[in-house]
Amino acid sequence: MEKRELVILGAGPAGMTAAIYGRRAGLDVLVLERGLPGGQITITDEVENWPGVQHTTGQALAESFRKHAEKFHPEFREATVEKVELRDGRKILVTEKGEIDAEAVLVATGANFKKLGCPGEAEYTGRGVSYCAVCDGAFFEDEVVAVIGGGNTAVEEACYLTQFASKVYVVHRRDSFRADRVPVEQAMANPKIVPVWDSVVESIEGGDMVERLMLRNVKTQEVSPLPVAGVFVFVGTDPNSRFVADLVETSKGGWIRTNPRMETSVEGIFAAGDVRDTYLRQVVTAAGDGATAAMAAYAYIAEQVHLQSVLLEPERVNALFTSSIDPAHVALVQQVEAWSAESGIPVSVVDGYRNGRMMEKLRILEMPTLVKLQKGVEQGRRAVTNLEEVRAFLQ
Ligand SMILES: Cc1cc2nc3c(=O)[nH]c(=O)nc-3n(C[C@H](O)[C@H](O)[C@H](O)COP(=O)(O)OP(=O)(O)OC[C@H]3O[C@@H](n4cnc5c(N)ncnc54)[C@H](O)[C@@H]3O)c2cc1C
């Protein structure tokens, strides 16, 4: 099976930044991307909040990320990750093109648009139903369209659509927008934008193409038709995390939980960007996450290599596994180190709290435990609580 050091899943801003940092740190980096590199930002033509660039398009920004990453020669490969599995402590990526054994995995697969789930939505997708104003807005020159949603994306995209459409209804289930003040003020000042409050879509209807929405007023329960030629759905996003959802810890909705080092609940699996359970989902935060995750993955890989050379390769090793967060263990380590220096009997101390993978590999279930190894093969072990027991076992 193909073996790689750092495998990054997804070539959006998080994945591409991680590729830059990973390669600059000297790692072997493979980036798996199911489509074209760039991620979600490629579908917007207005980016005004990437520091240092006052205005650009999503395509141009994504292209500059890609070119920058390519300078450091990571391998980009078109492949869809279907599953991440743990086999004997090894992380195996299952793709439609085969399996890859990764030392560290970075999940940077972003998020996807949520669907309304109403009758007609799937049937009319591409025939009037769209999830991307930039991609499809121009098809609705002088037509009446509806935007569904009330957040930033819905309100901003409604403004964008007024360049083409004669009228843009914004259908929202509440009686005010959730979006930030500035986009809401812009939308409300635009004569082409007409809010439709307290309403949800019951169905999307038409002939060959969309002709109307059936809306239900959530206060009166009245159902009425709204004639439109296009429907732009912006009702939130879902994380692309299904392929790891039964492996790593996620919050409600499937967003991957990480600590500040972007480590997930599984050692050696990291997550960055929009797929994470995080406060802000933007290019700048995704890029920051990607950098942190790559450096944390580098530290993790270096540690694995170090442990391999310290524990498993030498002729004889006495390894004491303790937990660095247990004061009694810390005290024992100090006594053992002093005795080791005095007696000349070497003892390698391993922090089992931070090296769960090595604990798993050697099947150590309790700490402190002393293990005698010869070229990585166990010669004996003993659970110890004090220096006397350590001495008795090693002398
Ligand atoms: C319409 C729109 C406008 C936006 N405007 C702005 C803006 O102006 N400024 C801003 O900062 N942010 C903006 N954003 C948000 C920004 O695009 C995201 O926060 C950012 O792209 C997140 O980056 P990411 O790398 O985490 O994920 P993504 O950009 O989502 O990239 C994830 C990548 O992973 C790939 N992938 C997913 N699943 C798999 C799999 N199983 N196997 C292989 N590959 C996979 C996807 O194809 C994708 O390329 C906008 C988003 C949208 C939708």
UniProtKB/TrEMBL annotation:
<dbReference type="InterPro" id="IPR008255">
    <property type="entry name" value="Pyr_nucl-diS_OxRdtase_2_AS"/>
</dbReference>
<keyword id="KW-0274">FAD</keyword>
<keyword id="KW-0521">NADP</keyword>
<dbReference type="InterPro" id="IPR023753">
    <property type="entry name" value="FAD/NAD-binding_dom"/>
</dbReference>
<keyword id="KW-1015">Disulfide bond</keyword>
<feature type="domain" description="FAD/NAD(P)-binding">
    <location>
        <begin position="5"/>
        <end position="290"/>
    </location>
</feature>
<comment type="subunit">
    <text>Homodimer.</text>
</comment>
<keyword id="KW-0676">Redox-active center</keyword>
<keyword id="KW-0560">Oxidoreductase</keyword>
<dbReference type="GO" id="GO:0019430">
    <property type="term" value="P:removal of superoxide radicals"/>
</dbReference>
<dbReference type="InterPro" id="IPR050097">
    <property type="entry name" value="Ferredoxin-NADP_redctase_2"/>
</dbReference>
<dbReference type="InterPro" id="IPR036188">
    <property type="entry name" value="FAD/NAD-bd_sf"/>
</dbReference>
<dbReference type="GO" id="GO:0004791">
    <property type="term" value="F:thioredoxin-disulfide reductase (NADPH) activity"/>
</dbReference>
<protein>
    <recommendedName>
        <fullName>Thioredoxin reductase</fullName>
        <ecNumber>1.8.1.9</ecNumber>
    </recommendedName>
</protein>
<dbReference type="GO" id="GO:0005737">
    <property type="term" value="C:cytoplasm"/>
</dbReference>
<dbReference type="InterPro" id="IPR005982">
    <property type="entry name" value="Thioredox_Rdtase"/>
</dbReference>
<comment type="similarity">
    <text>Belongs to the class-II pyridine nucleotide-disulfide oxidoreductase family.</text>
</comment>
<keyword id="KW-0285">Flavoprotein</keyword>
<dbReference type="Pfam" id="PF07992">
    <property type="entry name" value="Pyr_redox_2"/>
</dbReference>
